Amino acid sequence: MSTMSTRSAWRALHYSAKRRAFQPSTPYRCFSCANRAQEQKTDNDRMTHFGFTNVPESEKESRVGAVFSSVAASYDRMNDLMSLGIHRLWKDHFVRSLNPGSCLPAMTADQRGWNILDIAGGTGDIAFRMLDHATNINHDMETRVTISDINANMLAEGRKRSLDTPYYNTSRLDFVEANAEHMPHIPDSSVDLYTVVFGIRNFTDKQAALNEAYRVLKPGGVFACMEFSKVDNPVLDGIYKRWNFSAIPLIGQVVAGDRDSYQYLVESIERFPTQEEFRGMIQKAGFMIPGQGFENLTGGIAAIHKGIKPIVKA
Amino acid sequence: MAYLARTLPKRVITPSLSQSIRQTRAIATTTPQSTPTRPAQTVPRTSKPRQLPHRTYHSALHARLPDHSYTNSQTAILTSALAHVPAHGFTATALTLGARDAGFLDVSVQLLPRAEFDLILFWLASRRGLLRGQVEEGGLFRRIAAEKGKDVHELSVEERVMGLILERLRMNAEVKGVWQDALAQMSLLANIPLSLTELHSLASDILTLSGDDAVDATWYTRRLAVSAIYASAEVVMTRDPTPDLVETEAFVERRFEDRKAIADKLTGIGQCAGFGWNTAIGLGRSWGLKI
């Protein structure tokens, strides 16, 4: 009897709670006009992912900034430990498949060398590889790379490393601190190759960054992105998830002394869209997709996505 | 199985025959109650466009599949690149030059994920399309018949197949010098499946265009024979110094004779075995065995 009464009491409470929550969230909603649709939420209200937690959009940038500032110094060592050295193979494959630099003499002066924009490439991992490939494989001394990163600490790390390369203090290498979602200093249709390697995951608004990439690329230019992705094989996926959530934060704690940053890293990998979803986003920005549109590496742990800006025939 | 069904022979069906097939199909899809004398109800069913991405069967009512599945931009780059093939071979250089000619950047060759192999596949597929065009519009068989001093209708399937193989080989004449490199590319482990698919499509097209309509077990052996003759003749062609590929032609003729000889031998062996078996059974029965 008592259980019956408590249950009905609970139901009544529950019901009333529901009813109270049914207050219309917007004070005015007219079905004949689009007033409600036009209402823009303020920036402070919009939320985005920061790993598994939701944070306001305005806060994500600074939080990601804090993560990468804290890992900048130990970035390479950590990458080696976390990926068991495989990230070097991926990066080499990525650069080799793009084959930067022209082995043929240019027909016009403005065609000489490629203008490459390496987004989120603070430590210069990809940029130095691309310049090496252009110089040593294609004998192209003109191709230049602009390294753009939102984080000054990562750029400082890249500058320090560039001292050991032959490109230090030449016109072929340039460092810019910028937000990839908004790059007013780069003119329209000026870039041959836009690369973003293990970076786009951390962007607040990925679609905005893709649209900006579309703007700065020349017609016929290529957007190439390497990012952690989803594993197809369930067995490999199980092992990979276990490694991600157990081993990586631990390695981060022991080696870099920063567990939280690496916890964010694995959570952001988990939150990143699947290969097909991300291909859809690239298409939405206006790019043409070559073939399948993505190439899985090591069973889908990472994937290379490519898009080509179409040329408009006059 | 689906693969086999997809590549079943496209038989030559006269319009009146296909019309009757359409009608039988339409009748078969109506309910048993309706009488077959009501075409108005059934016609719209068949006139609907059938756009199926993956067909698991072949029908003469389907439109022909395109020769290749490249997009417009990819085709533009590949077509311009083919002009550079005689000089540069099936290489990345030819592709880059093609991209430049088509108004693209050097980096735009990323549109072709298989790079050089895409150029080779495009060459194969586009030449296959040209061959079909020559038969359907160019009156290729009339030319072959005129060379032999015959009427078109007197040409046997065998002669047509040989004529098509030779015509296809002549199309390779301009890339003769670089074709060995292409064959090497095609024989790389990762490229073998697509190369074989393309070879099969060519053999299938040649036999279909020749009017071969066998649907028994020889469907497989014929395609195998044509593929084998074409593939070996391609290798011979790359080493043929004569301008009009006379040596290759002689080689193909010899292979056709071989094929005929082998077929005769196999038939003979089969007949002999059958005769022996029948004799053995007859002998056994005459001895009173219950067989």
Automatic annotation (TrEMBL), chain A:
Keyword Transferase included in the entry's annotation: yes
Binding site for S-adenosyl-L-methionine: 123, 149, 179-180
Location(s), subcellular: Mitochondrion inner membrane
Pathway assigned in UniProt: Cofactor biosynthesis; ubiquinone biosynthesis
Keywords carried by this UniProt record: Membrane, Methyltransferase, Mitochondrion, Mitochondrion inner membrane, S-adenosyl-L-methionine, Transferase, Ubiquinone biosynthesis
PROSITE patterns: SAM_MT_UBIE, UBIE_1, UBIE_2
Enzyme class: transferase
Lipid bilayer topology: Peripheral membrane protein
Region forming the signal peptide: none
Catalytic reaction equation(s): a 2-methoxy-6-(all-trans-polyprenyl)benzene-1,4-diol + S-adenosyl-L-methionine = a 5-methoxy-2-methyl-3-(all-trans-polyprenyl)benzene-1,4-diol + S-adenosyl-L-homocysteine + H(+)
Single GO MF annotation: 2-methoxy-6-polyprenyl-1,4-benzoquinol methyltransferase activity
SUPFAM superfamilies: S-adenosyl-L-methionine-dependent methyltransferases (SSF53335)
Complex and partners: Component of a multi-subunit COQ enzyme complex, composed of at least COQ3, COQ4, COQ5, COQ6, COQ7 and COQ9.
Family label: Belongs to the class I-like SAM-binding methyltransferase superfamily. MenG/UbiE family.
Name listed for the protein in its UniProt record: 2-methoxy-6-polyprenyl-1,4-benzoquinol methylase, mitochondrial
Gene: COQ5
Automatic annotation (TrEMBL), chain B:
Keyword Cell membrane attached: no
A Pfam family: COQ9
Entry protein name: Ubiquinone biosynthesis protein
Domain COQ9 C-terminal: 193-262
GO cellular component, one term: mitochondrial inner membrane
Protein source organism: Penicillium nalgiovense
Superkingdom per UniProt: Eukaryota
High-level lineage: Eukaryota, Fungi, Dikarya, Ascomycota, Pezizomycotina
Localization in the cell: Mitochondrion
